[in-house]
């Protein structure tokens, strides 16, 4: 015979489930509602600058950022959460954070470790630039299908690549005007125009420094 039915509830957010992204975001929102009035700087960041479990924010003033950092740490401690993977383009900020809580060493000289990635975008904190890498197998001939495929690989959620994407889409527009079939090879002069464009794609860097 079966005994009494017992109900179990998870006290943590379990990743891997369909609802996990919602639960993670909703938990932070509730924390902000409950405790945000005591930490106004942190509250505005948790509402505006969080994507999943990453906080992407900053400040133009060092002292203000120090206060923001303190408020964020204090706010999340209210829910038993410890912030880690800190990264900054200012070494003074990282100096006040333990190595274990950092995601990047400002003084690291390794080319493989001088960037971090979030939201699909590569950021080089030391020289403050965003980098976009697109893998393209250069060839002499492309089809309209391949042109569209390459354009779709240019992931740009912040809109940095607007001028570049516009140029690519103008070329694609010409292919539609020419009424090429999907697998029909491009012919000159548009083939040369596309090849010249593709040759600029492997690595694109955009500096955030105003004096660069």
UniProtKB/TrEMBL annotation:
Tree of life domain: Eukaryota
GO biological process, one term: DNA biosynthetic process
Pfam families xref list: Peptidase_A17 (PF05380)
PANTHER family reported in the protein's UniProt record: PHD-TYPE DOMAIN-CONTAINING PROTEIN
Name the record gives this protein: Integrase catalytic domain-containing protein
Organism: Trichonephila clavipes
């Amino acid at each position: 015979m079966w005994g009494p039915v017992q109900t179990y509830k998870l006290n943590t957010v379990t990743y891997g489930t369909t609802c996990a992204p919602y639960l993670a975001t909703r938990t932070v929102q509730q924390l902000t509602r409950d405790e945000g009035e005591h930490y106004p700087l942190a509250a505005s960041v948790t509402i505006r600058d969080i994507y999943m479990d990453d906080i992407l924010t900053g400040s133009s003033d060092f002292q203000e950022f120090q206060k923001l950092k303190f408020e964020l740490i204090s706010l999340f401690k209210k829910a038993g959460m410890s912030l880690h993977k800190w990264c900054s383009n200012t070494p003074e900020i990282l100096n006040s954070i333990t190595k274990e809580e950092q995601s990047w060493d400002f003084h690291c000289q390794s080319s493989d470790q001088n960037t971090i990635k979030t939201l699909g975008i590569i950021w080089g904190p030391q020289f403050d630039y965003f980098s976009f890498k697109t893998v393209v197998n250069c060839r002499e001939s492309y089809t309209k299908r391949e042109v569209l495929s390459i354009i779709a690989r240019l992931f740009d959620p912040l809109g940095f690549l607007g001028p570049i994407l516009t140029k690519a889409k103008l070329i694609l527009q010409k292919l539609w005007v020419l009424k090429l079939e999907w697998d029909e090879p491009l012919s000159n002069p548009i083939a040369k125009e596309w090849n010249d464009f593709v040759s600029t794609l492997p690595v694109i860097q955009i500096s955030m420094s105003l004096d660069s």
